[in-house]
Structure formats: C-alpha cells, structure tokens
Task: structure prediction
Amino acid sequence: MNVVDFARPLIDIDSTTGREGEAGEWIASALRSLGYEVQEQPVSPGRGNIVATLDRPTVVLSTHYDCVPPFFASSVEDGRLIGRGACDAKGILSSQVAAVERLRAEGERRVGLLFVVGEERGSDGAAVANASPAGSQYLINGEPTDSRLGLATRGNLRVRLHARGKAAHSSRPEQGISAIDLLIDALIRLRGLELPADPDLGTTYYTIGLIEGGVAPNVVSPHATAEVMFRTVTPPEIILERLEALRPLVDIEEVLRVPHVRLKTWSDSPLERAVFPFTTDIPLLDRWGMPLLFGPGSILEAHTQRESIGIDELKAAVGHYVALSQACLRERQAGAESP
Result:
C-alpha cells in the first residue's frame, strides 16, 4: 500500500481531541476493507479506540489518531507531507498499517494494530484500551522519535502551588499578607532545590507554566497559584519530598503523575537509540506487552503551524516497523523453545 495515499484522507479529517469520531469510523472502515477483524472500543460518546487483528497478536503496533488544534488539511510539498497529524501521529499510523500489510504479504499474521483517542489530553483512550488487552507480548508505540529507538522516556509530575494571604487596601499593606509575595518567595526557593538525576535519563527539570493571583491592582492579594511541570527521571515521591521545603509559604497539590519508562531495545539493532523527554501512552498500556518506542518524524515538527514529515522517512519507517516486529517475534519464539 502507498503510505501517503493512506495518510492523506485521514489527515483531511478533523480529529482534534474530543472530535475523533469521524476519523475512527474512517480507520475502522479502511481496515475492514483490507480484511482485518476490527473491534471498536467506546471511550466516550461518539469516539473510541480501534483494534485490528488477523490472528491472535504477539506484537501490536500502536499510536494515537487525535491531534492538537487547529486543524488544517493535507498537502505535499518539496518531498514532505504537510497537515495536522502528518507527523503526530497520522503519518505514523499509516506507516504502521503498511508494515502489517507487508508482514501479512510474507505470511506473518501475528502482528496487530491499536489506535487510540485522547493521547493529547490525558490519554483516556489508552486507559480504556488497557482494561481490554489483546494478549500481545510486545507493544511498539509510535511517536515522532526521528526514527530512533527509545531507550527510555521521562515521566511527568504536575503540581499546583497555593499561596494564601490576607486582603487589605494597598495603601495599608501592613494590614494584609500578600499571597503573590509568598508565591514568588516559594518559586525562588524552588529554583535552589537539588532535583533527582539518573545516569541514563539525566537530571529532572521543570517549567512554571501558569501563574494566577490577586483580585485587583489596589488590593493586597489574598490568593495566588502556580502550576509547575516536572519532567521526571525517578519516582515522583522523591520530588514531592523535596518540595516540602516550600512550606509554609505554599500548600502543594499534586495534579498529575505519569511515570518514567525504560524501554525494550536490542544491542545489535542498527537503529540509533535515545532517551526522550516527552511522555507517551506507554505507561497506561502496560498490559499490552513489553514496550518499544519508535517513529518517523521530529517532535520539533509536532503541534506546529506547518506540521510536516519527510515522505522518504515515512516510507522508510514501514521497513523499520517490519524489522522491529520480526525481532520481537524471533525473541518470543526463542523464549518459547528454550528449556
């Protein structure tokens, strides 16, 4: 199959997170027409995951088909496929379908497909899929990795810092307590904390993504908050323990955690290997088998105004997905034959 011809009509459907229904119907119909047994897993009204198999799968290729806004349709220019999702991750999805088709043409039917919704906004699709695994032993997840095989991915820890003050007229600041001043002091203290490190994944880092506070310019602020995102390389409890140093300036509320993940690789693989700072659906798909991470395209292209992917790299990814699937199958067979 032509991977670009498969990708373009899918890219041309707006599947911004929460609006994946039409794209899911298109994928399910396309895969049924190719002869797959297709299961549609409802996630919320009008949207769901797609599971496609031939025989009982040992290996499953997986990615997501929701996208960030704004939607824009596909085009081809200077050897690149352009459009929302071309890189993240409808182009990847198309290369995975082409890989399973190539394997089937060679008589291999033990590789299936899992395409989920909601990855860009909390991974609700992955959570639903994990409740109904297909019995596979390996999961090859597709995200833009510059065609490198993942050694590991960092995790996420998001916290909200709450500073509580006392309102007063700004002409008499001594009558109040500025929550904004308390929050600033806490953020300065945060800057000086030693954060945990890992020899392979590096040192934890963070960004302060949101700050809110106060009620009016002429009022001593009674409340202020900041949201901080840590890209983690250790269990989050270590960071939470160190954040206790910010008390009593602020209260600390945990909002989200996604664990860091170490991934399956082979020392003799010709693919370059790397650690990636972004998170994926992998932590929420642990019942689908030993995880691998690989995909064409750059994370620097994802979510951009002119999102695109090189067509040559997209086509080459088909062969890489075939080779990775075959390596998993060989390892599984060797394990089954060992005493």
Summary: The chain has a mean pLDDT of 96. Helices lie at 3-11, 21-33, 90-105, 124-130, 179-191, 236-243, 311-337. The CA atoms of residues 10 and 285 lie 24 Å apart.
